[in-house]
Predict the 3D structure of the following.
Amino acid sequence: MKILENLSHLRKGETALITGIHAPDSMRYRLQAMGLRTGREAEVIRRPRLGPMQIRIGSVNLIMRRCDAARVTISTQQ
Amino acid sequence: MKRLAIVGMPNTGKSTFFNRLTGSSSRVANWPGVTVDLLSANVVLGGNAVEVVDLPGIYDLHGFSDDEQVVRSFLENNAIDTIGVVLNATQLDHQLPLALQIRKLGIRPVILVNMIDEADQLGVRIDTGALSTALDCPVMPLSARHGTGFNDARDAITRELSAASAVSLNDLRDCLHADDELVAEAEALVSQNVKAPSRLVRKMTERIDHVLLHPVFGLPLFFLAMFLVFQAVYTLGTPLQDGVAYLLDVFRGLALEPLESMLPGNLYGFLVEGLYDGVGTVASFVPVIILFFFFMAIVEDSGYLARAAFLTDSLMAKLGLDGRGFVMILMGFGCNVPALMGTRVMRSRALRLLSMLVIPFSLCSARLQVYLFITTALFTASQAPLVLFFMYLASFAAAFLTALVFGRRLKSDEPFVLELPPYRQPALKQVLLRGWHEIAHFLRRASTFIITGVVLVWLLTHFPAGSTPGGAGTWASMLGLWMKPVLDPIGISPDMSVILLFGFVAKEIVIGALVAMTGLDGSALAGYLATQMDSIQAISFMLFILLYTPCLSTLATQLNESRSWKFAGYSLAWSLGLAWAVSFGFYQGARILGY
Ligand SMILES: Nc1nc2c(ncn2[C@@H]2O[C@H](COP(=O)(O)OP(=O)(O)OP(=O)(O)O)[C@@H](O)[C@H]2O)c(=O)[nH]1
């Protein structure tokens, strides 16, 4: 059985490939345009106990809440 | 007249480019989405008169936030000759899809690969010539901030403009190509034409963030930074303020007082003791305000605001807002109006309305003037800063309380995702322009609201003819008596109530009106104030001023931005009610405790 992993599960310093975004259309467009696109590699830069995470995708640094990161599915087996 | 629209993602340097191209000063800030109003300016390029329009930063043309709709409807409703697409050279992998979206609309854009200086430093090499051939439109590398490549870019725009004929884009959304294709195309273009290290290392930014975003020390450092800014404004501003007051006084003595014997008494009183002293007292606060905006501009331009959003988001989430909301509250400390307009980046209406409900409680620079004046008049030098600090706390408390009360009704599912720009050294030119912008802003307000307000207050406190100026029997005191049942319980004397009426229009009028009403200024006015209120009453008065309503402009902006009378009405009713309740609680409570 395959366990669906998402971006909010990653720990600081870990990287993974983005496999999809589970959000309504309008929200998905926004997240994709900000850099969260399928096939790109995401790295967790910061993950404080409280507050948003900092994610790096290529040249872009994003801060996002954990609940929003949970909408981004990833795959870690590379 | 030809038209050039400047489009690009937030924070790519559109405003910097716009300013360099047009020589005019739009505000520049290192914070995604600050360019909220459409700025335009006219220039002559190659013999053509050209209107240049700086559009708000957007991530893509599909979007649903108000900003994105603004850009879309601008492009659909205005004939355009060409579009300047500003891209960040260090993020072409991320930004090229937007350029392709625009390229496919049927307009030949000029692609401006900006921040080429940063790209060079980071070891990113871009073959703009090959990109230009592949896209069949000019692709120009430049640094809008330092000017490298700017002339070539301007020439390319000039050439495009004289060749182009205006196009209207209808049903823009239908023309958008499938995203996946565009992204694949962009990736191919980037991999062929851009050589970049596999991981861009911004050592400086990483090092600074290591400290400033520290999980434990980040937030305390943020509050310390805010405290230092206010401290600096206060300590640097007070002597400057005294200086301006002194100069105005010298001018009065040399040029105006000799007129006393020449003009009829009433006219002299009106012109000099009312108008000149009133507006002059307000003007003496201008240096403080400029300093304040000067520091704000530095903070904004450095990229720290996005960090503030990061640090405060978990607190704001509990209130139903997000980190951006906190940053808007901070910007509101300058002026509530642009802060309200800054909420356009939010997609969810509920979140936007909640933010717009909260922002007017930010202690803006106009209210700061009133407090500086009252605290210096009524409190000792050691008490005054504490009272001021208390007002800032009250401002936050009112904002948070409002969010708590209304957060449940205005719930949203808006994702909180924000780009973290690298730290940049604030550009001195921009910071100075910002100061100038504030002086101009003040002069505009002074010549309209403030003069009108001061004149009206003077009339109300000096008529009907025969009544003692500022005393019983004047129209003002009648108004005061009429409002007494409401204001007496919160410790505000009838004489002060007419001032509150005018403060409704703009807070700057408050001090000007005090001067005009009494015919006193400086220490004489401070003495008069002391007869009107003790320190408890003064704090109650200041709390009321803080909360009862922002100014008329803020109210109008709330109405414009929400497009809802109901919302603006609610907001006004809530703030009036809150102001009265808080002042009542404070005043009566303090009296019961025996103060
Ligand atoms: N190093 C470098 N910095 C630049 C350049 N152009 C702009 N900047 C900086 O980038 C930041 C953002 O510039 P803005 O002109 O405000 O960007 P904008 O695209 O108008 O931003 P929004 O109004 O938020 O959409 C500022 O700190 C500028 O000083 C450049 O060519 N090189």
